[in-house]
Every structure is written in structure tokens, then in C-alpha cells.
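Input.
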Amino acid sequence: MSGRFAAGACAALLAGCATQAPPPEPVALQIIALNDLHGHLLPPEGGFNIPDPDNPGSHIAVQAGGVEHMATMVEALRARNPNTIMVGAGDLIGASPLLSSLFHDEPTIEALTEMDFALAAVGNHEFDEGPAELQRMQNGGCHPVDGCRGPREFAGAGFQYLAASTVDLETGQTVFPPYAVREFGGVPVAFIGLTLEGTPDVLPPASHAGLAFGDEVETVNALVPALQAQGIEAIVVLLHEGGEAGGAYDGCPSISGPIVDIVNGFDDAVDLVVTGHTHNAYLCRIDGRLVTSAGSYGRLLTRIDAVLDPASGDIVLADAENLIVTTADHPAAPALTALLSDYRALAEPLMFEVVGSVSGELSRSRDQSEESTLGDVVADAMLAAEPDAEIAIMNPGGLRADIAGGADGVVTYNDLFTVQPFNNTLVSLTLTGAQIDALLEEQFQDPDYYRILQVSQGFAFSWDDSRPYGDKVSDIMLDGAPLDPAAGYRLVTNDFLASGGDGFTVFEQARDPIPGLLDIEALRLYFAANSPVAPGPQDRITRLD
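Output.
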């Protein structure tokens, strides 16, 4: 019995009952939250930066992450509270390192299933290979092109994907259930899962063909009355959208970005929000509600302690802590070690193939003009792979890791794949000088996040942020000469940008598109021909203000 019966029922049930039954005890609920794992099965290089206790104002890196160590932490957390559920806020797969991506992220799905992971919102990267492939992640089966590459037949996720705002236009139904209800101590809790409305803006068109992505606030608020009609008052939103917060990973001195307006717009019945997408770790209060994010790559887990009131059925208290998945403090879980060993045996011959070397770190970190040494090298590799191209353009979001090089600067295929894990195809195409100018102005279309394109040697431009949108770019040069607005120029980019990805719609006006190599193959060939590859002077992009 749940304790929900009225006090007056005491006399009816027990003759001679002289006192009122005590109120039901509150129910302690523990939610373990994860977001933006991106298939990082192993601890990411570089670890996780924390304040140096011995040097105020400085930071030190601790080794963190990896599903073997995460599983051990999850087991310890579960021991604290039998009412525990593990959930995710999207991008658990996609843009993954080679050990996961080589097998179309099947090992990541298996690892999460082994941890008794329960519910996950879909993120934009869950759609990288299209909706049919995401259904395969849920339901299992062999890949339609590559077949069964793994050590066993893929059984699919042991957890449930949720997609409240993603609708199949042909059927009019959501591609996965919009929410799931779980009961703890007799109290039902609804988990609504959804991704950002702008998902089509960060995917190639083929990845979201036939799908519509609804407004986050409208989607959630439309579900609230239906949940309340079922007697459900405790509502948790798992949302693949986020913000930027200053300060440490376990606090929130300030927060900005889309998540602020979204949470402010939610119905008051929504109790707490687990977020992702921005890779920023925070624990915030927005409109009185707890809003969390565990950063990225599995280096953190968020532990949320909530209190459920059996009388009202609502969450009456919620607090959280972001916990570092330190490798030193959490020994590898044997079941996960065995799982990874099965896949590593198949992947390591390719992973550890030496492809070249570097003489210094190639970093994604951008200078004041938003140019990076890694962006320069990747753009140069694209240009070298397309002999008829004059200019190469790379989107900064497609660069997923730095290249530091191992002993003596050695670079492996795995290093390159970690940088470019999407298997994008290079596309050469023709734009006029005027169209290239318009394309570069599209770098500033989002006032909260400029996407400054990385460009190849010989091409250069300047920008001035004090100028109005549409007139920020100047001094566009190719081999020292200004671009002719009327002339056609041959460019090479990846198929994501070529199809208008990241909002660069000018590419859709291009003439004579011709597909070429995979981007990872172009980078491999470049390292083979140019090693040791050196970081350059970052002299292609100039900021004037």
C-alpha cells in the first residue's frame, strides 16, 4: 500500500482505531545523470582540470573518465540508495573515438546497458547516421552496409530512448516515446526526453530527412496536463540543450545561453532539468528549478538527490553534485574491461597504425582571431586531397580533439580519427567571389556563438566585430590578390558544410559539386607526405577590432 489513503479511512478499516495514521515517509530518489559521452569508452587524453589545492588560481589535470571506471562509480552510488535511476541528456553516441565509431557505436550502447542505464533523451549526434540507424541502436541487429563487425550479434540498447519533440512527418508520431514513467516508493515520476529544436541546423540534410523537431518549451508544456491527468506530479526533463556557466564544474555563479529562456518557459510543474549539448558542466538554479550538466566525455557524473512527497506525489527537494570519475579512485569494473577487450582485439591493428608525426602540438584552441593550428593543418590536408581546388574550408565544430603526438611526436590512425570521427566525404565545388564573401558573413549569424571557419594556406580574410552583421568581413585574399566578386573559385569542404550544415546556406548555391575522399583519409595522406607536421603561424585570419 502506498500510504495515499485518507486519514478518515482509519476508522472504516480498523474498528476502535483511536489515533490518525502517521503521514507517509518521504521517498529519497537518487538520479545519476550523464550527457555528451560521445562514445568515449576510454579515459580522454588530458584528463579533467580542477583547481590546484596547493596553488590558488592554478589548475591541475586528473585522469578521469572511461566506462570501466564509470561503472565502478555507478555501482558505489547505487549502494547508497535502492531508489536509483541512471539517465542521459543526449549525445551519448556520435562523434565518437575509433574504438566505438569503428563498430557504429555498438560498444557504447552495450557498455551503458551493462551499467543498467535506464532512459536517454536523443541528442543531435544520435541522428548522425540517420533515424533508421538510431532505431537499430535501440532495437539491435547488424548494420545494413557493414554487417556485424563486432564480437557478437548486436542486441540493441537495454535502455529506452525518448524523443518528445522529434516527429516522423509520414506517421505524425514521435520516433521514440515522448516520456517514460518510473515508480519509486509508490510515487510515479515522469521523465520527458527531447533534443534541441535547432537539431537540423547541425546535421546534414540526409540525417534528418522526414523528421520535424519541435519547440522545446511547447513540447514539454503540452505533455504536462496529460501527465497530471494520470496522477503524476513529479516531472523531470532530460533535454539535449544547454548553456554556458562560469566558475567551477560543480557550481553556477552565472549561466547564459538557450537553456535560460527554455527553463523559464517551462510549466511550473516541471521540477528539475538535466541538460547537455554545450559540453559545459554546471549545477544551477533557474526559475527556482535545479538545472544540471555533467560536461562531456564521461569525465563527470551528476548525482541528484531528490525527495518525493507521497502525499502530493511531487518532488519537494532536489540538490546535486558533479562527481569526477577519477581513474585512481575507481578501479576498472571487470565486466566492462571484458567488454572493451572484445572490441579492442578487433580494432587495435588499425588504431595503433603509425601514420606520421608532429613537431609540436596541433591544438583546437583558437587565438584572438579564432584561428587554430589544428584547423590550419586540417584545411591544408583537404586542399592537398583535391588538386583542382584553390581554397579549403573546415568547420571548427568538426575538430573533436587536439593532436599532441606520443613519444617522439608519433601520430597514430586513432589520433587522427579522434580529431575527425564523422567519416565525412570531401566535396569540391564552385562559388563566386561574391558568394564566398556572403559565406564568410554567415560565420556571425548566431550572436551567441560565432563559427569562424578554418581555411587553407594562401587564403586569408579579416573581420571586425564592431561592424554590423552582414558587413563584418573584409580583405578577402587568395595568394595575395583580392577575390574577384564575379569570378568562380573552386573550393573543397566536407559534405556536412556543402549541404548547408551549421547554417552556411551559401554552400547550397554552389555549382558542379564533386565528391572526393573521406576527410580522415585526406588527413592520413597529408601526414604521410608531410611528417613531421608543424603548427603554423596562424596568419590566415585577422581580427581588426
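The longest strand covers residues 314-324.
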